[in-house]
Amino acid sequence: MLTRKNNIIFVCFLLGSALLLFLFLQYKPLSRKIEPKKQNVYGVKDKTVEVDLEKGDKKFCISYEGSQMELDLKDNTGKRCEVAVNDLFESYPGNKVTEIKNSGKYYLDVKAVGFWQVIIVDAN
């Protein structure tokens, strides 16, 4: 025969199970897309900007206004990386994908006459 103590344990078990089932049925997976990490650097005229980059392919979305722009990406030893822009256009909207071989600090060296902006995102 069931005792009062066993009845209380059984009721608690039923309530706990019902609560877990309710929570499980309420679960909704994340429906929004996770934004990729991006870095936005900008300036006017010549400037060197330090950026932290993780290993992997990065897309550099470059825009500037003016008559000339030179853009180099250098690692922490000063060695020039793959990305380089040297244009003589009045304005330049464009993208360039570069493989970052090691995570760490990099320096974006910009020489420009006018306003410039570089947005760095994962290339995936």
Sheet-strand content, in percent, reads over 45%
Indicate the low-confidence ranges by residue numbers: none
Order of strands across the main sheet? 1-8-3-6
Helix content: 10-25%
Structure classification = alpha+beta
Cα-based radius of gyration, to the nearest Å: 27 Å
The quaternary organization reads as single chain
Named at the architecture level, the CATH assignment of one domain is Sandwich
- Overall, the morphology is rod-shaped
Mean pLDDT comes to: 82
**Through-space gap between termini:** 65 Å
The top-level CATH class of one domain is Mainly Beta
How many DSSP-defined strands? 8
Structural notes for this entry:
- The structure is a single chain.
- This protein is of the alpha+beta class.
- The protein has one helix and eight strands; from the N terminus they run H-E-E-E-E-E-E-E-E.
- Strand 4 (69-75) and strand 5 (80-87) form a beta hairpin.
- The termini are far apart.
- The mean pLDDT is 82.
Features:
single chain; alpha+beta; Jelly Rolls; 4-stranded antiparallel β-sheet; rod-shaped
Secondary structure layout plus pairing:
Blueprint (H helix, E strand, L loop, with lengths): L3 H23 L11 E7 L2 E7 L2 E10 L3 E7 L4 E8 L3 E10 L3 E9 L2 E8 L2
Antiparallel strand pairs: 1-8, 2-7, 3-6, 3-8, 4-5, 4-7
